[in-house]
Amino acid sequence: MNFELEKLVRPNIWALEPYSCARDEFKGMDAHVFLDANESPYNDPLNRYPDPLQERVKAALAPLKGVSPEKMFLGNGSDEAIDLVYRVFCEPKCDNVVAIAPTYGMYKVCADINEVEYRPVPLDEHFQLNADHLLAKTDEHTKVIWLCSPNNPSGNCLQPDEITKVLRGFNGVVVVDEAYSDFSDLMPFRLRLDEFPNIIVLNTFSKAWASASIRLGIAFTSPEIIALFNKVKYPYNINKLTQDKALEMLGEVFKVERWCTQIRMEREHMLPALQELPIVKQVYPTDANFVLVRVTDANAIYHYLIQRGVVVRNRNRVQLCQNCLRITIGTQPENNELLAALRQYR
Ligand SMILES: *Cc1c(COP(=O)(O)O)cnc(C)c1O
Description:
The protein is of the alpha/beta class. The chain has helices spanning 5-8, 11-14, 22-25, 55-65, 78-89, 106-113, 131-136, 160-169, 223-232, 240-250, 253-275, 298-307, 332-343; strands at residues 72-75, 96-101, 117-122, 142-148, 173-177, 199-204, 217-220, 280-283, 290-295, 313-314, 324-328.
């Protein structure tokens, strides 16, 4: 592999002189009169601009995630990092990206917004990745490969050996979205950053951390790529309320671990219970907090469940997911209500 960052980055981004905000210029702790940012002196503490690089949050994340702060980027959800990957690396109407299919929808939406060609490569019937098939779809204009493990909507982890083969066999950037890795026993690629100069791993507060509302996503990658993200992002992309709440959550890790254990236990209970239902054709293996289920008639069952006040995700129209519903693991009473409704379906 021959990874040259400068050749991958859009020339205008490589040359970009970023906006320098007041909080970048002065970082000392000693001052007590702040007249540099045209802030109001009233309404403390909401009057002050937040830390543009979220240093306290990153410091608290570092021991938990096993990654040092200079290899972290925090975004307004993972979605911000996904969009930044396009804006940093992909020249509109010229470059392309390759992605597994089916997978998370935002990779394609952001490609379309940025006018970047999106090349989906179907997984096999077990939703597994063939690295050679994926690499065969790349050409000299392919800047990024999108992988997601555990994958959404299939729920399974991609085989680590195949992911490694993609990372080693591609000269561009490989994103491994590990939004659901807290629900899996496999070693996350987040802990293997140093093996691959071209990897970007995504995590989020929206799933295991039970904080989708605060909009906080994490990208783990080399300090060089982090510097590019920091140059292009909005100066104050993570507001103070979100940073404060994240710090509070990070002080209660035991709670998050308890929730994860609970969800895994419920998952073990739900898989055989779903399998027993006559309307269920196949329950796909899952390493996430949801399960993909092939049923007799996904559209009819989806609408029936809505009438009963239970909402699941209808994936019937997604590639390889004909007649499939994606069902999130909820609390035990919620899961039981779903099972009871499905048992009564005629
Ligand atoms: C839910 C999900 C995310 C989370 O996105 P946020 O913007 O952080 O809420 C990211 N990737 C995948 C694959 C997901 O399913």
